[in-house]
Amino acid sequence: MKITFIGAAHEVTGSCTLVETGKTKFLVDCGMEQGPDMYENRNLPVSPTEIDFLFLTHAHIDHSGKLPLLVKNGFRGKIYSTDATRRLCSVMLSDSAHIQMSDAEWKNRKAKRSGKGAYEPLYDQNDVDATMSLFESYGYTKDFAVTEGISARFFDAGHLLGSSSVKLRLTEDGKECTVIFSGDIGNSERPLLCDPQMPDEADVVITESTYGDRAHDAVRPDYEKKLTELLTETFEKGGNLVIPSFAVGRTQELLYLLRGIKERHAVKYDFPVYLDSPLAVEATKIYASPDMRDYYDEETLTLLSRGINPITFDGLHVSVTTEDSKAINTDPTPKVIIASSGMCEAGRIRHHLKYNLWRKECTVLFIGYQVEGTLGRRLLDGEKTVNILGEEINVAAKIDRLDGISAHADKEGLLHWLGSMKKRPRRVYVNHGDDTACEAYAKAVGRKLLINAVAPYSGGCYDLLSDVCYDPGNMQKLQKRTALPAKNKPSVAWTKLFAAGVRLSDLIERSRGMKSKELMQLTNQINSLCNKWGKTVKNKKKKR
Q1: N or C: which end of the chain has fewer CB within 10 A?
Q2: Residue 510 lies in a domain
Q3: End of a domain among 370, 401, 432?
């Protein structure tokens, strides 16, 4: 009974974990990495065709974003999730496919002009459609059999509409192991959603640690008060309040807060709110669906019982087309602009930052976690000039954050979630946190809860029954490279070559145990390739 950590190991995004028991192989999450890599992720040690099924904790792209790629490469098993997760994935993965195709179109136009090879997107809408056909949905706290020796149950993680922790009962050769994957654990007392459900018992727990080294304010912040103050301050100066927001989850919570502010006339200006994200618009429709009531907290259900839609209001304008988006910045009326992405790495928010960052009367408000190296993180860290869409922009706007609105529990929240178990686990694996956070949280679990905890690296492989480590994983941190001049940046072709080299290195690592004859054959082929191209590469360097 083995577990192998692939993504979100000593990093915050790209969650993906492989479990092998008997003849069965399955994944928990298959997410896309966001922001720069701190460590080189190992490849899946098995082919997608060998994976029998998959559990998806929630719809965020860093947990679901590579599902269509998995399907494209041959995965045909069931994807188990809640119904809300399935519905949100239908729009989020379609949006991701659109981004992939748009990027490919732009890169291929550029490649054609320079005579370079074609760029292939990770996946397209056909792959998304194939992925959605594999979903099978279950509600919270209901046991369901998956296959012989494996049953599962979802618990409300309180992080996103439909988000879940997954409890698995695994049996192999008469030996049983109960495993809980936390997914992303939500912060308590957040708008719309219920608080996280506490787990009952487990032998092994795999837990996130996004905020594993920090604490939210001891007293729950008054989100409406802070937002009201920022709105008033910005509008009195004649500026715009620009909010980079994650299209699914955080945006809907923000709309909930703005609806309350407008309802109570807390701001004297009758300000418009522009929701500039096609994905956010579609996600908001799902949030507002009558059949999503099972996922809401009591406060939200009370509003719904009074016939009040908790996330829509007069003065809310949705922007779908590119023309709609462009028109927002031509209107001088002080306004709220909500646009994705939340870390400012892509999407329409970059255009709005380009038009508003240099204006001292404007405010840019962050309401979510910013991964190291992203534009959002650099703005929060105080950079005075940033490059946006090829143009250097002076940062004169006020940069602020709404503390405590995080969708993730802090260290104490995570410890409370884990420590609430009637029967403590014998082993905890800590993932989904950067270097500092996951190591700090693993130590906190050991010190405060007296549980054996470790933070695995990508490729780290362990026995779920004995806790034996088969492979510690890739512990080598990627060297930070200084930014190269445009003319020295690696070409697409070189990037593909480098990826092929990484793949070869991974192949060599996995070749242990092969017959000596096979190993010598592989060695000779690699040496022959190096001999063939060695002189060519050497001559190229001399010419430089």
Answers
A1: C
A2: no
A3: 401
